[in-house]
Amino acid sequence: MRLRHIEVFHAIMQVGTISGAAQVLHISQPAVTKVLQHAELQLGMPLFERVRGKLYPKPEAHRLFAETEKLNRDLQGIRRLAASLKNRAGETVRLVSTPTIAISVLPAALTDWRRDFSQTRCELATFHTSEIVNALRLGEADLALSLQDPRHPGIEAEPIAAGNLMVMAPKGTWSEEECREPITPSGLKGELIGLADRDPLGEMVVAACEAQDVHPVFHTVVQTYQIARSLVEAGAGSAVLDPFTAASAARDKVQCRQWAPAIPVQLYLLTASHAPLSHGARELANCIGATARALLDKGSS
């Protein structure tokens, strides 16, 4: 059976009539009839019983339907892709990011990018890094952002901005002189907001504390850096956070100091090794990198 035969055959199997299949496929009834007759002629057997204008599939038709279902789905996907590629103004850039960067960096970066790519569609989703790797490998995303290098053989990790781990506390916790100096684990005082188990930054913080014989107690533990930042802004305690989240906090509500000894934090652009970026996607990555670096510069000033 040819691809057109399969498409018409599946439409008839789903709706049960020539007229219904014609409506689904947006072609004429005679065209549907002609394609079906040609398919049956090639196969050398009828696929349907004709009873009062309705078509009833024979057992052979059910067998064929089961075997060609995946092929038909693939055909529909190819048609949708071709329609999308036909209209280049409708080009889509699919970006996935960890929530931290999606909130702290992307709003300003997308605003800058839109000045030159006003007609390009951008789909943004937030995933954790393990999910990001799967999305890139399966071709469900074009580019991604994470504070971790997944070190996966199928993923390219390009550093586009870098800062250091920061300690954030409610306004008035430290003097101006103290804010100009890094803070060590022994300098942590008061309520400390912790990060969830197995969080990479959280694990580094605990390891650095224990290396100096400091054992922090967390009465509040959160899943995301944004929740920790919001709690600090509300005066609920202090938190050790990535530099991007720290730099995007409300300066009238918090104070920030660099963690000592310094722990570098990189922002990585992640892409699939086998899939080069389009012009629009690469320019978006450039805007993100520039925005992230500017944010860190502003936060340190």
Automatic annotation (TrEMBL):
SUPFAM superfamilies: Periplasmic binding protein-like II (SSF53850), Winged helix' DNA-binding domain (SSF46785)
PROSITE patterns found in the cross-reference section: HTH_LYSR
InterPro entries noted in UniProt: LysR_HTH_N, LysR_subst-bd, WH-like_DNA-bd_sf, WH_DNA-bd_sf
Domain HTH lysR-type, first and last residues per copy: 1-58
Pfam families associated with the record: HTH_1, LysR_substrate
Record's keyword annotation contains Aminoacyl-tRNA synthetase: no
Alphabetically ordered keywords of this record: DNA-binding, Transcription, Transcription regulation
Family membership noted in the UniProt record: Belongs to the LysR transcriptional regulatory family.
Protein name (database record): LysR family transcriptional regulator
